[in-house]
Automatic annotation (TrEMBL):
Belongs to the SurE nucleotidase family. This is Survival protein SurE-like phosphatase/nucleotidase domain-containing protein. Keywords: Hydrolase, Metal-binding. InterPro entries: SurE (IPR030048), SurE-like_Pase/nucleotidase (IPR002828), SurE-like_sf (IPR036523). Pfam families: SurE. Residues 49-241 form the Survival protein SurE-like phosphatase/nucleotidase domain. GO terms for molecular function: metal ion binding; nucleotidase activity. The lineage of its organism: Eukaryota, Viridiplantae, Streptophyta, Embryophyta, Tracheophyta. The keyword Hydrolase applies. It comes from the Eukaryota.
Length: 372
């Protein structure tokens, strides 16, 4: 509402003084607002958590986890995840190529989607290029569909995200549900989040206390029926892995097979194209040395030989069910199948497993005892 002064009842000089005072007061208020706007935003006192995954930013497991972490408003949650499914990318990082990064929203949290691997996402997020914080208290990779046990951890992009965080000096967890195709459903993902939340909060609490194991990251497996789990066990990595099943693809049966790799624009194709002359020369030497050998031509290399001199074949690899499982007690895959939540410490080093497992067992006993 505008302020007015009636000149009829006041001395003109007094009116002038009042008007000047009102103008000065208005200018002072505006200056205060401007100064307040220029003040840096006060850093959040909540623990900062970074979430990534292997299945891509649109996966429901990621959304359910982020929503649950934000529900009680105790954490400052940020997300940096692959743009698409990179579940079996291992610990690969992208070099020599430009990554595209787009801002997004996931479950109410500020997020970035990256056209790279989970390891790329974590490395980029922790570099300080995307977020204003110096570093998070904890990095969580999950929630992912499909158990990551045994040697499958070496192929897993989700596990790589947690491993990259530990390499960068940040405690981390990888969380996966033992998803069964045609049996599990999205409600199981929500239940899995419910089961793993106490472990996450215990980890954050004890990281701040300085008593969380700092020589490993934790690979957490949630059993197929999360809410009926039999408890939590610290386990060891088993020697099992999924079978890598290579299938020959006939271009007669599947005409698109010949264009499959080229459509993917893989790094292997680009390298093959760059090394075309050298590869062709080497292949020519091999052909001349032994005419009976049959060359299997790389899809990315053209015009090496005529169709009478070479054979082109196409293959696709599929992961199949695990073979014979070890029956040794305490292994991650066996304990998970028995219905327990598994906590498997994974180190960056080949030795020290017993010491690491002992330290994790001690921490878990304290974390679950309720002692604060």
């Amino acid at each position: 509402m505008a302020t007015s002064v009636k000149n009829n009842f006041l001395n003109p000089a007094l009116v002038s003084n009042l008007q000047q005072a009102l103008i000065r007061r208005k200018d002072s208020v505006q200056e205060q607002h401007q100064n307040k706007a220029k003040e840096p935003t006060k850093a959040s006192s909540k623990p900062v958590v970074l979430v990534t995954n292997g299945e891509g930013i649109d996966s429901p497991g990621l959304t359910y986890l982020v929503e649950a972490l934000l529900r009680d408003a105790l954490l400052d949650v940020h997300v940096c995840a692959p743009q698409s499914d990179r579940s079996v990318s291992g610990h690969s990082v992208t070099t020599g190529e430009t990554l595209a990064v787009c801002s997004a929203q996931v479950g109410g949290a500020n997020a970035y989607e990256v056209s790279g691997t989970p390891a790329d996402c974590v490395s980029l997020a922790l570099s300080g290029a995307l977020f204003s914080w110096s570093k998070p208290v904890l990095v969580i990779s999950g929630l992912n569909k499909g158990a990551t046990c045994g040697f499958d951890t070496l192929y897993s992009g989700a596990v790589a995200g947690a491993r990259e965080a530990l390499i960068c000096g940040v405690p981390s967890l990888c969380i996966s549900l033992n998803w069964e195709k045609n049996v599990s459903c999205e409600s199981d993902l929500k239940d899995a989040v419910t089961v793993c939340l106490p472990l996450i909060h215990a980890a954050i609490r004890d990281i701040q206390k300085g008593i969380f194991p700092n020589n490993c990251f934790l690979n957490i497996g949630i059993p197929r029926c999360p809410l009926t789990n039999k408890g939590i066990k610290v386990t060891r990595q088993s020697p099992n892995r999924s079978s890598l099943n290579w299938q020959a693809v006939s271009t007669n049966r599947n005409p698109s097979a010949g264009h499959y790799m080229s459509n993917q624009q893989s790094l292997g194709i680009m390298l093959a194209q760059l090394g075309r002359d050298a590869s062709a020369a080497a292949a020519a030497r091999r052909l001349n040395s032994n005419r009976k050998n049959v060359e299997v031509e790389s899809i990315g290399i053209a015009e090496k030989f005529s169709s009478e001199q070479s054979t082109k074949k196409y293959f696709r690899m599929e992961l199949t069910a695990k073979g014979q499982q070890s029956k040794e007690d305490g292994l991650d895959s066996r304990v998970l199948e028995q219905g327990f939540v598994t906590v498997t410490p994974l180190s960056l080093y080949a030795n020290g497993h017993m010491e690491i497992q002992s330290s994790v067992s001690s921490w878990l006993a304290i974390a679950l005892s309720g002692d604060q």
